[in-house]
Design goal:
The chain is mainly alpha-helical. It has 2 domains: 7-86, no CATH class; 98-182, no CATH class. The protein is 45% helix and 0% strand. Helix 1 (7-17) packs antiparallel against helix 2, helix 2 (22-29) crosses helix 3 and helix 7 crosses helix 9 (131-138). The chain starts with 6 loop residues before the first helix and ends in an 18-residue tail after the last helix. Residues 212-222 have a biased composition (Acidic residues).
Length: 222
């Protein structure tokens, strides 16, 4: 049976616009008959706007007419290309060829050394690894720690340059926001004179070299 897109909204439309029984609507929308009755009584889905299954291609007019003429008839939903496009698509996990999997610890080590601001979740998603493996590389408890050498994931063929740049940029932006929120400023700052131990009146005066005093025209000092 084809799953109905927005089943409750579809049931609302069928209750309002057809003479179908609660059982027929429930069967078509995959709901319980009591839930459909609640929709008809205004107790369920009061704020949901009805969705026309004919307009979105999930139900034909012929099926609806057949069901309205026979309360024992059960409507068959048809597959709607429009409905399929609206369904959320779950991104498949990143696949790493077997020949490249042994290189992932090297790429992890590269991130740990060169970009500690990149979160473990980002590394795991980019390299197709796990947080546990990342932690093992970081703590040098990985079974192959003696042979792990930092190598960037682009060189290893585990990611493209665009993917790597995007991950690093996102991590840098997040770090900058966190630092700004905590009042952290990059680079040394000049301390005010009040905190250096120098009296304020002296701190404001420019330094002028003192000239030696002479008591005669021969240039001898006193």
């Amino acid at each position: 049976m084809t799953d109905i897109l927005m089943p409750k909204a579809t049931a609302v439309w069928l209750v309002d616009n057809t003479s179908l029984t609660f059982d027929q609507i429930a069967d078509f929308c995959g709901l319980h008959p009591l839930e459909v009755k609640g929709i008809a009584d205004g107790e369920v889905a009061r704020d949901i706007r009805g969705a026309d299954p004919i307009a979105n291609g999930q139900l034909s007019r012929e099926e609806l007419d057949a069901a309205q003429n026979n309360d024992k008839y059960r409507m068959r939903a048809q597959k709607s290309r429009h409905a399929e496009l609206l369904k959320p698509v779950k991104k498949a996990p990143r696949y790493t060829p077997v020949s490249r999997r042994q290189d992932r610890p090297d790429a992890i080590a590269w991130f740990i050394r060169n970009h500690p601001e990149v979160a473990d979740a980002q590394i795991a998603r980019l390299l197709g690894t796990t947080k546990a493996t990342i932690d093992q590389v970081r703590t040098r408890s990985h079974w192959n720690s003696a042979n792990i050498k930092p190598v960037d994931p682009v060189t290893l063929g585990l990611a493209t340059q665009l993917e790597l740049d995007a991950v690093v940029k996102k991590a840098a932006e997040r770090k900058a926001k966190d630092d700004a929120r905590r009042g952290i400023v990059d680079g040394p700052t000049l301390e005010p004179a009040s905190e250096t131990g120098v009296p304020l009146d002296q701190a404001e005066q420019p330094y002028v070299a003192e000239e030696p005093l002479y008591d005669d025209e021969d240039g001898e000092e006193d």
